[in-house]
């Protein structure tokens, strides 16, 4: 995720979102950080049937106090 020799820390903030009443709602979130160029975050959660779900990942790469952020979304899944 980061660059060797440049990145001092990486952080992933993972959200589980559910589509309700025309908008995406966060129903759970987790954070993982590492003083390295990579951070891994794997989570599971039971969900209710009858909704559409997706994951949102906000990924941060730090160089000291400066950082870059990338946001990515998973595919949407009907459950």
How does this model look, in words?
With 79 residues, the chain is mainly beta. 0% of the residues lie in helices and 58% in strands. The chain contains no helices and five strands. Strand 1 (9-20) and strand 2 form a beta hairpin. The protein starts with 8 loop residues before the first strand and ends with a strand.
End-to-end separation in angstroms reads: 31 Å
Overall shape: it is: elongated
Strand content: over 45%
Mean pLDDT: 91
Continuous helix count: 0
Largest sheet: 5 strands, antiparallel
| Percent helix range | under 10%
Structural class: mainly beta
Number of strands: 5
Oligomeric assembly: single chain
Q: What are the secondary-structure elements, in order, as H or E?
A: EEEEE
As a whole number of angstroms, the C-alpha radius of gyration is 15 Å
Low-confidence stretches: none
Write the layout of secondary structure elements.
Blueprint: E1 9-20, E2 23-34, E3 52-63, E4 66-73, E5 77-78
Antiparallel strand pairs: 1-2, 1-3, 3-4, 3-5
């Amino acid at each position: 995720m980061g660059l060797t020799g440049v990145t001092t820390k990486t952080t992933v903030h993972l959200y589980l979102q559910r589509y309700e009443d025309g908008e995406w709602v966060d129903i759970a979130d987790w954070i993982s950080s590492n003083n390295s160029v990579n951070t891994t975050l794997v989570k599971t959660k039971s969900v209710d049937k009858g909704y559409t779900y997706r994951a949102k990942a906000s990924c941060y790469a730090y160089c000291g106090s400066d950082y870059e952020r990338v946001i990515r979304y998973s595919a949407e899944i009907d459950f």
